[in-house]
Amino acid sequence: MGHGRIDLDGTAFDLQSTLESGQTYLWWRDDGEDYDSTYGGDDWYLTTTRATDDPGVIKVRQRDGELEYRANVDAEPVLRRRLGLDDDLPAIHASVPDDEVIDDAYDEYWGMRIVREPAFGCVISFICSAQMRVSRIHGMQQSLREAFGTAIEFEGNTYHAYPTPKQLAAATEQQLRDLSLGYRAPYVQRTAEMVADGDDPTEATGLSYEEARELLTRYVGVGDKVADCVLLFSLGYLEAVPLDTWIRTAIEEYFPDCAQGNYTDTSRAIREQLGGEYAGYTQTYLFHYLRNDGPES
């Protein structure tokens, strides 16, 4: 509770890349600015949590080899889990195949971790992500918070927790359309109803990877790609490789033998190419690197 610090003790960690690499839309910058390409800052990031019965607020920034936080909940275990602080990054890197572009991606953003976000918020936010700019996706999540989430007073400001499944299920499709969700509105409303009625996405945990992906596609608006995002960025399936436009382009350019003509077979081939057990880690490094830097021509 209150103020605190997590000493990174020389552990490689990069908060900015972890939160600004397209893994999560459930954090935002305290200064209200959009994520951009300026790298190396020490900005505060915020999120809300339901680690206890009452929703809380956590603010965190990285400075001088430590994570500094302010919160009205016990923040350290939440941060360790949600920011992947206990992942053995050197062991993960050691499992990666020898490849120039992969090595460059790890070198450029060494310390980036895979997040473990709350499952329901992860599902809804990635349903909203289809064909949307990052700023719009973040804006949708903030609109959902403010319209349906529980208000939280913290440090003289009012924040809103991410809505619970029941809170969001109570919204009408028109209310969601009024928040600029467009065609995603009925998907969000129906999926919230399903979860509120007991179809918990965490039920996928413990299943084999492909069984878990299949289970998640039962939600309205969740196809294979969104399911892979939830598996990777919420449920700890570090082998999952979401096949979005960036990764498909990377496959065409760098790993053409993995292009198999359909999602399932291409997914299986690229997971093997990227190292199997931790393929999702390597995918995320590649995604962030190719989107922001890419190899010199």
Topology:
Elements: E1 2-7, H1 15-19, E2 28-29, E3 45-49, E4 56-63, E5 66-71, H2 75-82, H3 89-94, H4 100-108, H5 119-128, H6 134-148, E6 151-154, E7 157-160, H7 165-169, H8 173-178, H9 184-196, H10 209-216, H11 224-233, H12 245-254, H13 263-273, H14 279-292
Helix pairs in contact: 4-14, 5-9, 5-11, 10-11
What do these coordinates show?
The chain is α+β, with helices and mostly antiparallel strands and 297 residues long. Helices cover 44% and strands 12% of the residues. The protein has 14 helices and seven strands. The protein has helices spanning 15-19, 75-82, 89-94, 100-108, 119-128, 134-148, 165-169, 173-178, 184-196, 209-216, 224-233, 245-254, 263-273, 279-292, and strands at residues 2-7, 28-29, 45-49, 56-63, 66-71, 151-154, 157-160. The strands form two sheets. Strands 1-5-4-3-2 form a five-stranded antiparallel sheet. A two-stranded antiparallel ribbon has the order 6-7. Strand 4 and strand 5 (66-71) form a beta hairpin. Helix 4 (100-108) packs across helix 14. It is globular, with a radius of gyration of 19 Å. The model has no long low-confidence stretch (mean pLDDT 93).
Features:
297 residues; alpha+beta; two-stranded antiparallel ribbon
Structural class estimated from helices and strands: alpha+beta
Radius of gyration over C-alpha positions, nearest whole angstrom: 19 Å
Enumerate the spans where pLDDT stays under 50 for 5 or more consecutive residues: none
How would you write the strand order of the largest sheet?
1-5-4-3-2
Q: How many DSSP H or I helices?
A: 14
What about the largest sheet? 5 strands, antiparallel
Instruction: Tell the overall outline.
Output: globular
Strand runs, count: 7
Please report the distance between the alpha carbons of the first and last residues: 49 Å
The chain-level mean pLDDT equals: 93
Strand content: 5-15%
Helical residue percent?
40-55%
The string of secondary-structure elements, in order, is EHEEEEHHHHHEEHHHHHHHH
